[in-house]
Hints:
By secondary structure, the chain is of the alpha/beta class. It contains 24 helices and 21 strands. Strands 11-12-10-13-14-9-15 form a 7-stranded parallel β-sheet, sandwiched between helices. It has a 6-stranded parallel β-sheet with strand order 16-21-20-17-19-18, with helices on both faces.
Amino acid sequence: MKNMNNFNYLLSDLTKLTGVGKKTMEILKKKKVSNIFDLLWRLPKSYTDRSLTSNICDLQVGEVQTIKITPIKYQFPRIRNLPNRVNCEDETGKIDCIFFNSYEGYVKKILPLNEQISISGKITSYKGRYQITNPTYVSKNSSLIETVHNKYSLTEGINEKTYNKIINQILKNLPSLTEWHDQEILKKFDNESWNSSIVKLHDPKNIDNYKSSFYKRLAYDEILASFLVNSEIRKKIKKIKKISKKFTEEPYDEITSKLNFKLTNDQKASLIDINNDLNSNSKMFRLLQGDVGSGKTIVSLISSLNVINSGFQVALMAPTEILARQHFSLAKELFPNNISIKLLSSKSENIEKKKIINELKNNKVQMVFGTHAIFQKKIIFSNLGYIIIDEQHKFGVRQRKLLSDKGGNNCDVLLMSATPIPRTLTMSVYGDMDVSIIKEKPSNRKEVKTYSKLESKIDDVLNFVKKEINFGNQVFWVCPLIEESKKIDHQSSISKYKFLEKIFPNKVALLHGKIKNEEKEQILNKFLNKKYSILVSTTIIEVGIDFPNANVIIIENANKFGLSQLHQLRGRVGRGTKQASCILMFKSNLSSNAKKRINILKNSNDGFEISEEDMKLRGFGDLLGFKQSGIKYFKLADPIQNEDLFLLAEKEIKKMEKKNSSIHKYKALLKLYDQADIINDIV
Ligand code: ADP
Ligand code: MG
């Protein structure tokens, strides 16, 4: 089995290993270890030093020690419950090995009289005599136990000895892989090869040695692998040829003349990126990233009009129907009358739906708005040329790829997201796409003032709300999800509604997930038309909806939300010209860490900065939304600790893209680290 000189050994299943039977394999499978490679990343937590430590006379009670002894006499008592005992000695003293619940035959076998044997275990002392009870490591072949043994966090059913044997076996049989990095990169990691790095990773002396070259090399390997895959997907999409879209500047002037504001420079620049892509003859796959309220919608609508003018149809998909309707209404206002646009809503009459479906098929409708329902099988476009997907940051790389394929070659794709992610993660999350970023906020925006308040101070909050309402302003009152879990003490939006309704009669509306869509829209429309002053709701207002007149948001139980989510919620206000406020309410005093986090929010209105700081405080694992985003968790690499490696990998990828160099030499790396199907058609 030794060295096949390729990586297949590492990808083979565990039965390839001697000593791993069905049972062990099943146990490990449950822990998501399905092949040999997977086992490499379960790192030792600590170790026990079983190197030959002592003569009997130097033994230290309470320590795990290893000694060479000679058994000289068995004592097998005839009384039940008394342990079997073996008197042993070396030239310096005596020690007893004690065995509870053991068979004489077994004891005789492992400790034959008058032969030198190595034993290891915790030393105790009883009536002035040294003892080792139930020694687990007993061997004639001293080299087997006189070593340092790793302690892994073991899975129930597998013991330390077996596990160490398995790992050592793998380390001994590591195939020698051809180096995939250039000299120059390798030098940065003291020329540590993959093999030597893996061996060092499992060397007990190196536990927690995050800063050493071997560790960094391995971290870099996995970062590069993830970036490479994304980059390849991107290159592949770019190779898809399409009919270029031809249009003039007119639609731009037509729309902007109807706006009461000027586009920001970033909006203009993004529009240029998008138009260039539409114009080109390769398929667009672009992300438009911009903080909440940065004005992405208008950019997408102007580009839609361009596509329509070039003779293609457009589909805009939003995560909720409310948002789809809002985009639809805006387009109705801004688009010339001769362009037919439709909203495909779940609540439309069947006849109406059928009509729209027919019109899409016959090219009588140029643009359709809706939720994911617009991508149902029964909906066939006559000439779809552009898909816009709003606020679907939870789509992972593979879902996006599917969507992009679905529209066909002539269909350009634009994703819009307000979820800012730390810079180091951009390539792993969005590396398959081109990215345009709107950083600049519209100039008429005032910063939202952010306060924190204890729930016991609710009277202050109510007074503040009263004042704002008297000025004709509107308020969002956000309660965490109702019925999310009965155990969690979440403030129910219903009881809050009842409470507020008593104080502000006829001025309060309630919105939560259980309310039917139709009713929801009525409520939102009434709120938009200022029929109500306060909208009590769960987080459904989080995504995208635009209410320029609302300038206060109160968020209850604010510690139930992540910082990025709070920032998104806060972004619902401050869209008009009035000073806006965000009040974060807490049930009890904040811990010092919570205070730090809230201060980040108070001091910054920049979603990127907030996500960056939040990641530093909370770690990368629990950043909002990442769990669902399909982004892979790294085995060793840490976006905070290894920022330099992420940047290095990014530089390397850019260099390769520029030179259009083949990634063939990374075949083993990609096969090992990204075992997904997508690799098959890349290398
Ligand atoms: P988001 O990027 O969060 O989707 P929207 O597109 O919903 O933001 O825009 C938020 C609000 O800002 C809307 O009311 C929109 O009309 C307005 N807006 C967009 N661009 C500008 C601008 N350049 N100047 C002023 N207001 C703008
Ligand atoms: Mg939006």
